[in-house]
Specification:
The protein is mainly α and 214 residues long. It has five helices and no strands. The protein starts with a helix and ends with a helix.
């Protein structure tokens, strides 16, 4: 497999092309510098050879300058990539920490929900009327969900207890009134007894008078 088949990136392929041209130009410069003049070139001036070698060297320098430019661009690209990678890593770390916090909060909320579901609520101990009886009295609540139905049953129980409490207060007042009446009657009877005793004591002289024999 050739290098061209392995490298697919257009920019890297252009760098490889320039590198290949620079390498070939190096070989050309070396061959030009080391070439021995033939018999037909013995009369060629040395100046022309120097000009040809200079021309080939300039072309080589052009390729090398392009390679240095590519190298400089590659260094800048690596720096930018490192910076982007560092920023992306920081963002990933931040998101990972945020995700861990969300997992922790999720576990905490699930624990709270489980505690609430298993909590022995006082309303569950209320002597509410059965659901069937309640829906029989109030069919408008037949479409309520479990929570709304429980609230309605509790409100119904509260209203019934308030009603019973009012009745109890009324009976209590009536009882207190009867107790007061009974006390008044007892007091009246006690006063009557005292009056009778006084009357009897006052009538004793008269009784003795009628008991005398004449």
């Amino acid at each position: 497999m050739t290098t061209g088949e392995i490298v697919k990136d257009p920019y890297l392929r252009s760098v490889l092309d320039v590198s290949t041209l620079a390498r070939e130009q190096c070989m050309t410069v070396i061959e030009t510098a080391e070439a021995k003049p033939g018999l037909d070139e013995q009369h060629t001036s040395l100046e022309n050879r120097h000009l040809e070698l200079s021309k080939q060297q300039k072309l080589l320098y052009t390729y090398l300058a392009q390679l240095r430019g590519h190298n400089r661009n590659a260094i800048f690209a690596v720096r930018n990539t490192k910076q982007s990678t560092a920023e992306a890593r920081q963002e990933i770390d931040r998101l990972h920490l945020q995700l861990q916090n969300l997992y922790y909060e999720q576990r905490h909320l699930r624990g709270e929900i489980s505690a609430c579901e298993s909590y022995d609520h006082k309303y569950q101990q209320l002597p509410l009327i059965p659901v069937e009886d309640f829906l029989g009295q109030y069919p408008e609540h037949s479409t309520d969900d479990e929570s709304a139905l429980m609230v309605a049953r509790i409100n119904h129980e509260h209203a019934e207890r308030e009603k019973l409490e009012q009745e109890r207060q009324g009976l209590l007042k009536k009882k207190q009134g009867l107790i007061a009446d009974n006390k008044k009657r007892k007091d009246d009877l006690a006063n009557l007894d005292k009056d009778l005793e006084k009357f009897i004591d006052a009538a004793k002289p008269i009784q003795k008078l009628f008991e005398k024999d004449y």
